[in-house]
Amino acid sequence: MSAGALFKGISESAASFKVRFEPEEVAALAEALSLGTAELQAIAGAFSYLEQKHHDSVIQTLLRLSRIPQKAPKTFEGFDFSRIKGRDDRALRQLPSLSNLHARKNIAFIGPEGIGKTHLAQAYGNKCCELGYKTYYLKATELKAKLEKAIAENRAESVVNSMVKPSCLIIDEVGRRRLDSECTNLFFDIVDRRYEKEGPNTLILTSNTPTNQWGDFFTGDDALLCALDRLFDRASVFMMKGPSYRGQECEVFSVEAVASVIKGVK
Question: In 128-260, where do the E strands start and end?
C-alpha cells in the first residue's frame, strides 16, 4: 500500500471517531517523526481495529436500546423464504434491502399465529440496527401500558417524542388490547408526527386481524379514526397465509399408565 493510501486510511479511521485528521496532517506527522512504511502500516492497522471495535459497540448499543429480544435473535437469514409462494412473493424477499426504510414507507404483516410475522418484523429491526438506524420494538400491550402510565404521570409529551424519534418503530400484535380515547389520541399523535418527520420513519405493525377491522381497536370519532389512513398512505401490507412454523421441532410421545404390580416379599 502506498504512503498516500495509508495517510488517507488513517484519516478516514480518525473521522469515524469524529476526529478531523486530514491526510496532509498525517503525512506531516509521519515526516516529523521519521515514520517508515512499516510503522505507518502498524498505525493504520491499529486505527482500523479501533474503528471496527467502535462500530461493533455502536451496533450493540442500538440493539440493546431497540428492545428487540436478542437471546435468539431473528434474522432474515434465519427465515425460510423457500416456504413463501404467490404472485407477490418477490416483495417479501426484497425486505432485507430495507427499501421501505429508505422510501419512508410503513410495513404491515397480517396473518394467523405462527406464520412468521414477528420474526420478519424483528429481523427488519435488527437489520436496521446493524446499519446504524435507531429502532424501537414493543408489543401493542406494552404500548398501551406505556401510554396509560404516561398519562397518569403527566409525561405524555415525553413518551410520544420517544416513539417519534426512531427511524424504525415496531409495534407487534396490534389488536390484543383496545385503546381508550386518551391512548387512541396519543397513538394517532405518534402516527401523525412520524408521518411528518424528516428522514426514515418506517412503522412496522403485525396483527392477526385484517386492516379493515382495525378501527375496532381504537376509541374515537370517525374523524379521528380516519387517521388510520395515514398508516397505509405509503405502506407495504403483506397478507400472509399458510401453516404455522411453531412446533416443528416438537416431539410427541404416546405413553400409557398401567396399574402398579407389587409383589410381596417373604
Answer: 135-139, 168-174, 202-207, 235-239
Ramachandran assignment for 259, one of left (phi > 0), alpha (psi -120 to 50 degrees), beta (any other) = beta
Domain 81-239 sits in which CATH superfamily? Answer: P-loop containing nucleotide triphosphate hydrolases (3.40.50.300)
| Domain ranges within the chain, ordered by starting residue | 3-57, 81-239
| Kind of pairing between the strands at 168-174 and 202-207 | parallel
- Secondary structure of residue 145 in the 3-state scheme: helix
Question: Tell me, what DSSP letter sits at residue 254?
Answer: -
What is the DSSP track for 64-75? HHHT---SS---
pLDDT digits (tens, 9 = 90+) for 10-43: 888 888 888 898 989 888 988 898 888 888 889 8
The residue whose grid cell reads 418477490 is 90
Compute CA 44 distance to the chain's CA centroid, rounded to the nearest angstrom. Answer: 34
Residue 42 is placed in which grid cell? Answer: 502498524
Q: How long, in residues, is the chain?
A: 266
Provide the edge-to-edge strand list for the sheet that holds 168-174: 135-139, 168-174, 202-207, 106-110, 235-239
Q: What is the pTM of this model?
A: 0.82
